[in-house]
Amino acid sequence: MNVQQVAVFLEHKPGRLAEISHCLAESNINIRALSLADTTDFGILRLVADDTDKARKVLKEHGFTVGVTEVIAVGAEDRPGGMDKILQVVSRADLNVEYMYAFTKKSGESGILLFKFDEPARALAAFKEAGIKILSGEEVHSM
Amino acid sequence: MIWNEKNETMPREELEVVQLGRLQAQVERVYATVPYYRQKMDEAGVAPGDIRSLADIKHLPFTTKDDLRRNYPFGLFTVPLDRIVRIHASSGTTGQPTVVGYTRRDIKMWAEMMARSLAAAGVTQKDVVHNAYGYGLFTGGLGAHYGAEEMGCAVIPISGGNSKRQITLMRDFGSTVLLATPSYTLNLADTMAEMGVDPSELKLRVGIFGAEPWSEQMRTELESRLRIKAVDIYGLSEVLGPGVAVECIEEQRGLHIMEDHFLPEIVDRDTFEPLAPGEKGELVFTTLTKEAFPVIRYRTKDVCQLITKVCTCGRTFHRMPKVTGRTDDMLIIRGVNVFPSQIEEVLVGTEGVEPHYQLIVSREGSLDTIEAQVEVSEEFFSDEVRVLEGLTRKLQGNIKDLLGISCKIKLVEPKTIQRSEGKAQRVIDKRNI
User: Fold this and answer.
1) How many Å from the N-terminal Cα to the C-terminal Cα in chain A?
2) β-strand A42-49 against A31-38: which pairing, if any?
3) The CATH classification of domain A70-141, taken from the options 3.30.750.24, 3.30.70.260, 3.90.550.10, 3.40.50.300
């Protein structure tokens, strides 16, 4: 139901990102969204692919440490204040965001925010109550 | 100067007579007073009377650190506690601490060994001795202290730590001799530079360094930074503490072993058969005069050979070169004994996973550093930075609690640590000791 996200552990070494993009490209996997978290010592690449299982398999075969986690995708209006509307809901519900990233489907049409919450169930309830559109995994993966 | 001219320059034949007599008495004593030694000798089918020559020592069973642990705390003492005047113990990071005891006579002997060592380094009673070895359960501080007092030096029992104050007092008191671990001495040199104190403001002329292995490179560095002579001293608490062997200032080529009190042997690292002088193997010591806590054929796990060539200083005692390796994988990090297996236990025990890891030991400035590179397996990988950082902090904390050392944890990608055919290379020591 929710969006499946592939997370990959990265050391700070030149060329590692390119290796990921290359092996995804070779397997004809399309990346819907991605974000990179980095610390002094390591990085975590998070991405949503059109085929999660295949992406996971391919990256594992190339020796990467891969984890698949669920994230929540919500639709936002692609105009000033669109993201704010959603974050106000998050704030009022006193939800803790582990991380988030965003992408737009088509300029001016709709933005999509991907969230990882420590309490996903409560987050879903809060979004529903506020009438915010929650996107299904199918919708996001097949965009 | 030679402190005990008679013993230290005794002709070899005479020395060997003294050694044999003392060895026989020592073996008889441990057989009569320590059930554990008696049992081991009985099992090996050797009786005290079988030791008719120094070469017969090869019939006696070895003693290892495990034997000492098994007899924790006082099982190997030959005398009741009312005859003990001092107890020292190892830090116990590898399990049970090893406990050693001394009678009044042992302390006196030890003081003489240290006084001999100081004399060999050119120290006299006119010197002001800054003793920065740690005072406490560690044998370094008090061992060196008693020797310097025996010699009649003005001893400053400063112990370790508080480097700025050490420099100030060294300058104000006009210290001429420094006793410390080499790594702490580098730390002192750094502190001096930070404080803007030039070595010429101090009266230091010689440093006697021990308790951890150090290289010739390190000697050059210590000598040029502090403008002193750097002399190596060797000892281990199981045998005595500092003062088992020392370099003479005349040659500084190998450390003279106090052979009238400690009988050295070199044995094959695998078969434990005695090796000829000059061959490299594990160093083994039998104490010849210790009362409270003698050891018979104690395996030090230090690797070296014996130099039998006569030394120009006049001492007839054989020499051992600087210890450069060990038969086990023990590391000495800032004076703390660390076995890679202990770190492995923490890594494996913390999250219930068995990670591939490698330890990188290096020296940054004057300090030893250790880093554990741990491969991130799927079992503990997380998409959240917080979780991974929390894990590294937890591992660091657990290692600190257990070993008392700071070990940086670096997460690395799978398969980045080289797989070896057979035994994994767990440790990369970049310190060039």
Assistant:
1) 15
2) antiparallel
3) 3.30.70.260
- Cβ–Cβ < 8 Å for B109, B289: yes
Is the CB of B382 inside 8 Å of chain A's CB atoms?
A: yes
The first and second tokens of residue B365, run together, are: 């400035």
CATH class in words for B331-429: alpha beta
Q: Which residues of B touch A46 (CB under 8 A)?
A: 383
In chain B, whose CA is at the least distance from the CA of A39? Answer: B385
Reported ipTM: the value is 0.86
The pairing of strands B255-257 and B241-247 is antiparallel
Architecture of domain A3-69: 2-Layer Sandwich (3.30)
Which chain B residue's Cα is nearest to A41?
A: B410
Do B381 and A64 make contact, defined as CB atoms within 8 angstroms? no
Of B378, B384, B386, the CB nearest to A65: B378
Partner A contacted by B378 (CB < 8 A)? yes
CA distance B298 to B355: 35
Task: Read off the pTM.
Answer: 0.71
CATH number for the domain whose boundaries are B5-326: 3.40.50.12780
- Cα nearest neighbour of A44 on chain B: B383
pLDDT in tens, B25-69: 999 999 999 999 999 999 999 999 999 999 999 999 999 999 999
- Tokens representing B1 are 């100067």
Residue B388 distance to chain A (closest CA, Å): 10
